[in-house]
């Protein structure tokens, strides 16, 4: 797709402008680093274009504050004070890291994830935001906490031009099939392979 031009133009009766304004469902999956980082980069572009942004993190603990959260909070304040960009919301819908010990059992965590998805469903139905990041959302789908078929149906029926980006490993095949844009991050090398711990400004 050189210079942003499609390889072929579908015979769908739509104008170039109408086709360009269609909502996008993107999935960032795979074992490599950068899935969430890429999604937040897209959200930054959306904010700059005047699209309201909402981030929903499904696995990370409420106590964990990533660098992007602080940056987008500042961008939200900039919009409120100077009218630049667009509104920003950031929500933690999960109960903590998937690979660490957490309070409660799987039933509690499944309920928290289901409540989070129910809230997103309501917002999609009301077209409350322009750009959604559902960070680490593939995990509750993989674990069966949220029904993948219901998610795909809801996303396919969302009104308006709401863009949605979903991140996380092991994205279900049904979600990949439904997506417009799918990127798989593949790890080639990682500092942790050499025993180095995560670094401020790199991992968070």
Structure description:
This protein is α/β, with parallel strands linked by helices. The chain has a domain at about 20-60 and about 85-95 and about 110-185: Rossmann fold. It is about 35% helix and about 15% strand. A six-stranded parallel beta sheet has the order 3-2-4-5-1-6. The protein is globular, with a radius of gyration of 18 Å. About 30% of the residues are buried. The model is unreliable at about 95-105 (pLDDT under 50). This is Cob(I)yrinic acid a,c-diamide adenosyltransferase. It comes from Mycolicibacterium insubricum.
- In terms of DSSP E residues, the strand content is 5-15%
The top-level CATH class of the domain at 21-61 and 86-95 and 108-186 is Alpha Beta
Detail the poorly predicted runs.
Answer: 96-103
Helix/strand structural class: alpha/beta
* Overall pLDDT metric: 86
**Record field, number of beta strands:** 6
First-to-last CA distance: 32 Å
Question: What kind of oligomer do you see?
Answer: single chain
- Second CATH tier, the architecture of the domain at 21-61 and 86-95 and 108-186: 3-Layer(aba) Sandwich
DSSP helix fraction: 25-40%
Strand neighbour order, sheet with most strands: 3-2-4-5-1-6
The CATH topology of the domain at 21-61 and 86-95 and 108-186 is Rossmann fold
Give the SSE string: HEHEHEHEHHEHE
Rg, rounded, reads 18 Å
Which overall shape is indicated by the principal axes computed on the Cα atoms? globular
Q: Quick one: biggest sheet?
A: 6 strands, parallel
Count of DSSP helices? 7
Find the CATH superfamily of the domain at 21-61 and 86-95 and 108-186.
Answer: P-loop containing nucleotide triphosphate hydrolases
């Amino acid at each position: 797709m050189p210079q942003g031009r499609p390889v072929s133009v579908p015979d769908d009766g739509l104008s170039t402008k109408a086709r360009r304004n269609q909502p996008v469902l993107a999935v960032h999956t795979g074992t490599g680093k950068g899935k969430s980082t890429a999604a937040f980069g897209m959200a930054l572009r959306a904010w700059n274009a005047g699209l309201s942004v909402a981030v929903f993190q499904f696995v990370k603990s409420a106590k964990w504050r990533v660098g992007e959260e602080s940056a987008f909070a500042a961008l939200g304040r900039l919009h409120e004070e100077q009218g630049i960009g667009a509104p920003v919301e950031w929500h933690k819908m999960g109960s903590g890291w998937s690979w660490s010990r957490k309070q409660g059992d799987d039933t509690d965590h499944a309920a928290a994830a289901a409540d989070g998805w129910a809230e997103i469903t309501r917002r999609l139905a009301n077209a409350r935001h322009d750009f959604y990041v559902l960070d680490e959302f593939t995990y509750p789908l993989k674990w069966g906490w949220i029904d993948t078929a219901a998610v795909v149906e809801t996303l396919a029926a969302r009104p308006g031009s709401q863009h949605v980006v979903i991140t996380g490993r092991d994205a279900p095949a049904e979600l990949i099939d439904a997506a417009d844009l799918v990127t798989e991050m593949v790890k080639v090398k990682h500092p942790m392979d050499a025993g180095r711990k995560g670094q401020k400004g790199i991992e968070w």
